[in-house]
Design brief:
Number of strands: 23
Strand content: 15-25%
Distance between the termini: 50 Å
Number of domains: 6
Helix content: 25-40%
CATH architecture of the largest domain: Orthogonal Bundle
Shape: globular
C-alpha cells in the first residue's frame, strides 16, 4: 500500500520522514498550489463572489509532479499546518489531485498535529479527519475580502493620491494608528516640572563617605495635597524650606508581594518580546520560529492560546523538581486563561516539544544559527518559568514628615523592596519586562518616629514627554488589544506598510512618510468605515464565526461589498487629487539650479528636481551610516539596488567600487552585491 503524505515545506517533510519511516512517501507542496491571479480581480462579482483560482506559473511543475505521485498512491494524507491557511492549502491540493482522471486514490485523509514528535504524529495518523470546510471558508473569506479592498481601492489611489499607491484592509488600519500617533507627537507641548529628592540618614549615625544608612526620599505632598512643582522658582522655595526642616519617620508600611510568572508565549507575545529583548523583527521572528517548528523543536508557532497540555505540564514540573529544585515547584500545575474571546482551533501555546532539549544541546549538536538558539532559549525559559513558584518580595514604604514651626508640613516617601524568594525569576529575570520588574532601592533598618538627618537635597528639572511612537512590539500589542488581525497576520501587516514606503523606521520607531500621510488622510476622509478600528475588529469576529460554522462566508462578503462599491463610485466622482507635502532636500539641482525635493518611487526615497517635468534630473538619496569604507576610508552610505534591496557603498563611487550587503566592520572582507 502506497501512503502519500503532502506537507508544505521540504524541511517539514524531512522531519516527518524521520518519524514515519519507509511506509510513507512524503512530498512538499512548496506552499500554496492555487491562488487568485495577480493580473485581474479573480473574483466573479456576478456569481456570488466565486473565486477564480489558478495554478501560479512557478507552481505548475510541482503540481504536475504531485499528480504523478498521487496516481501511484492509494491513500493520501494531507498534513499541512493546523490553522485556517493550512486547512485551505489542504483543500486546494485535494481539489487539484481529485480532479485528475488518472488518480487511483481511494482515501483522502486530513491529519492535524501541533508539534512534530513521534507521539503527536502517531495520534494524528491514527485519528485522521475530513477537511474542515468551515475553516476553508473562513480563509477564503479573508482572501476574497482583502482582494476586493486591494484591487478595487488601489486604482482609485493611483488617480487621487499617487501612481503606484495601494490599500489593504488591515494594513491601512495599522497605518492609521501610526499616523495618529505621529500627529499626537507633533502636537505635543512639553511642560516643565521639577522633582525634589532628599537624601536622609538616621540621626546621629556615624558619618562616613558616603554616609552610612542613607536612603533617598521623594517630595510628594504639602499640607496633605499632592505637590506639583512647575518651575525653578517654585522648586527653590521648597528647597529653602526643606533645608530648615526637621525630618521624622511618620509611617512605615510593609507588605509581602507575590509576583506570578507570565503565561507561555502566544504568537503576539513571542513577537513582542523577541523585538524588545532580541532585536529581531516580527517577520524574522516568525521565520525563525517556523524553522524550529518544522525541525520538531517547538509546537506550532501561530497561536493565540495560552493553553498547555496536561502531558507538557507534567513533563516540565518533573524537570523543575529534579533540575532546579523542589522549592521552585508549586503545589499544582498552573493553568492560564486567554483574554481573547476568539481562540482559534484549540491550539496550544508555543513551547518546546521536549523539555530536556536546551539551547546548549542544540548548540553542541550544530546546524543551528545564532537566531535559532536565542529564540529557542527564550521560548524554553518562558515555558519552564511559567510553571515555577511565584517570587516573594518584601515591599516597604516609608513616609517622612518634614516641618518647622510655622511652616506647612511636607511629606516625602521612599519605597524599597527585597526579594525573599526568587521563584520563577531565578530563570527568567533578565527576560522579564522592565515595567513589571521595577528596581527599587534597598532601605536600611528604620522605625516609626525615628528622627532623621538631611544629607542633601536633590532638585531636578524634567519635562513631560509625548506619547511614544510605535515600534513593532507596541504596534502588535495595540492591534491585538483592538482585536485587529490574527496570529498569522501581524508580521505581514508590518512588512507591507514598510514595503509600500508608507512608514519608515528611525531608531526602531515607525514614522509615517509623506506618502503614508497622504494615503491615510484620503482613506480617513472618504472611506472611514474601511479603516475604522471597531469595524475592522468586527470583521475579524465575523471571520471567526465563519470558522465556527455560525455564519456563511458569501453573504458576509455581500454585506460588506455593496456599500463599499457604492462608496467607490461616489468617491471616484467627487474626490479631488491629493496634494502631497513637499520635502525639500536642502540641495540644488546640478542641471538647472532649482531645489531638489525628496520623492518616493517604486524602490523608496530619491531626490528629484522640483522643476519636473521640464528638468528630469534625479539622484539617489544617500543615508549616512557612521562607518568608514574598508578600501579608501571614505564615508559609507546606504543605497538601494534597482530591485529595492538595501546595500552599503562608498560615497566616493565610482572612483571607489566598495559595496556590501552588510555594514562594514573592522575592514573585514566583504561580499559585493550584483
Amino acid at each position: 500500500m502506497n501512503n502519500l503524505v503532502i506537507v508544505e515545506s521540504p524541511t517539514k517533510a524531512r522531519t516527518l520522514q524521520k518519524y514515519l519511516g519507509s511506509n510513507y512517501q512524503i512530498e512538499a507542496s512548496m506552499g500554496h498550489v492555487r491562488d487568485l491571479p495577480k493580473s485581474e480581480l479573480g473574483i466573479d462579482l456576478e456569481h456570488n463572489f466565486e473565486p477564480k483560482y489558478i495554478i501560479p506559473k512557478d507552481k505548475k511543475k510541482r503540481v504536475n509532479e504531485l499528480k504523478k505521485e498521487a496516481e501511484k498512491a492509494q491513500i493520501l494524507y494531507l498534513a499541512t499546518d493546523p490553522d485556517r491557511e493550512g486547512e485551505a492549502i489542504a483543500w486546494h491540493i485535494k481539489e487539484l489531485l481529485v480532479g485528475s482522471s488518472d488518480t487511483n486514490l481511494t482515501l483522502i485523509k486530513r491529519v492535524v498535529f501541533h508539534e512534530i514528535t513521534e507521539d503527536a504524529l502517531k495520534e494524528a495518523f491514527e485519528r485522521p479527519r475530513e477537511i474542515n470546510l468551515q475553516l476553508v471558508d473562513a480563509q477564503q473569506a479573508r482572501r476574497v475580502l482583502d482582494r476586493l479592498v486591494g484591487y478595487k481601492l488601489s486604482p482609485l489611489l493611483w488617480v487621487k493620491v499617487k501612481r503606484g499607491s495601494s490599500a489593504g484592509r488591515v494594513q491601512s488600519v495599522a497605518l492609521r494608528l501610526i499616523v495618529e500617533r505621529e500627529r499626537e507627537v507633533k502636537a505635543f507641548k512639553a511642560e516643565e516640572y521639577w522633582v525634589i529628592e532628599a537624601e536622609l540618614s538616621a540621626a546621629g549615625s556615624v558619618r562616613s563617605l558616603p554616609p552610612a544608612d542613607t536612603f533617598i526620599t521623594t517630595l510628594i505632598e504639602q499640607n496633605g495635597k499632592k505637590l506639583e512643582i512647575k518651575n525653578k522658582q517654585e522648586a527653590d522655595g521648597h528647597v529653602k524650606n526643606l533645608q530648615k526642616a526637621n525630618y521624622v519617620i511618620s509611617k512605615i508600611t510593609q507588605k509581602k508581594v507575590h509576583r506570578f510568572p507570565y503565561p507561555p508565549f502566544t504568537t503576539s507575545t513571542l513577537q513582542q518580546i523577541s523585538v524588545n529583548k532580541l532585536g529581531m523583527s516580527a517577520k524574522k521572528t516568525m521565520m525563525t520560529a517556523q524553522a524550529l517548528y518544522e525541525q520538531g523543536l517547538i509546537t506550532y508557532m501561530r497561536t493565540d492560546s495560552v493553553n498547555l497540555s496536561a502531558e507538557a505540564i507534567q513533563a516540565v514540573r518533573s524537570y523543575i523538581e529534579n533540575s532546579i529544585g523542589k522549592s521552585y515547584l508549586p503545589i499544582k500545575g498552573r493553568v492560564f486563561k486567554s483574554k481573547s474571546k476568539n481562540i482559534q482551533e484549540a491550539h496550544e501555546a508555543i513551547r518546546p516539544t521536549n523539555i530536556q532539549t536546551q539551547a546548549q544541546v542544540l548548540r553542541d549538536k550544530g546546524g543551528f544559527n545564532r537566531d535559532h538558539l536565542r529564540l529557542y532559549e527564550l521560548i524554553w525559559k518562558r515555558f519552564v518559568s511559567c510553571q515555577m513558584s511565584e517570587a516573594i518580595l518584601d515591599q516597604t514604604t516609608v513616609d517622612v514628615a518634614a516641618s518647622t514651626p510655622g511652616m506647612a508640613g511636607y511629606l516625602l516617601r521612599a519605597t524599597g523592596s527585597v526579594i525573599r524568594f526568587e521563584g520563577w525569576l531565578k530563570l527568567y529575570e533578565k527576560e522579564a519586562e522592565n515595567d513589571d520588574m521595577e528596581k527599587k532601592q534597598m532601605l536600611p533598618s528604620l522605625k516609626e518616629n525615628q528622627i532623621l538627618d538631611l544629607i542633601q537635597l536633590l532638585p531636578s528639572q524634567h519635562f513631560t514627554q509625548p506619547p511614544p511612537r510605535y515600534n513593532e512590539a507596541s504596534l502588535i500589542k495595540k492591534l491585538e488589544e483592538l482585536g485587529i488581525g490574527r496570529p498569522s497576520t501581524y508580521a505581514p501587516i508590518l512588512s507591507t506598510i514598510m514595503e509600500r514606503f508608507y512608514v519608515e523606521r528611525m531608531e526602531q520607531k515607525f514614522i509615517p512618510t509623506s506618502l503614508g500621510f497622504a494615503v491615510n488622510d484620503f482613506l480617513v476622509k472618504y472611506f472611514p468605515d474601511i479603516i475604522d478600528y471597531t469595524f475592522t475588529a468586527q470583521m475579524e469576529d465575523n471571520l471567526d464565526e465563519i470558522a465556527r460554522g455560525e455564519r456563511q462566508w458569501k453573504p458576509t462578503i455581500q454585506a460588506f461589498y455593496q456599500p463599499f462599491e457604492e462608496k467607490l463610485e461616489e468617491t471616484t466622482k467627487v474626490a479631488e487629487k491629493v496634494k502631497m507635502e513637499v520635502e525639500l532636500a536642502g540641495k540644488k539641482c546640478p542641471e538647472c539650479g532649482k531645489d531638489l525635493i525628496v520623492r518616493i518611487g517604486k524602490f523608496g526615497k530619491f531626490l528629484a528636481c522640483s522643476g519636473f517635468p521640464d528638468c528630469k534630473h534625479t539622484e539617489s538619496l544617500e543615508e549616512k551610516v557612521n562607518a568608514k569604507c574598508p578600501l579608501d576610508s571614505g564615508e559609507v552610505v546606504m543605497r538601494k539596488t534597482r530591485k529595492g534591496k538595501t546595500f552599503y557603498g562608498c560615497k566616493n563611487w565610482p572612483v571607489c567600487k566598495f559595496a556590501s550587503w552588510t555594514k562594514p566592520k573592522n575592514n573585514l572582507g566583504v561580499k559585493t552585491p550584483h
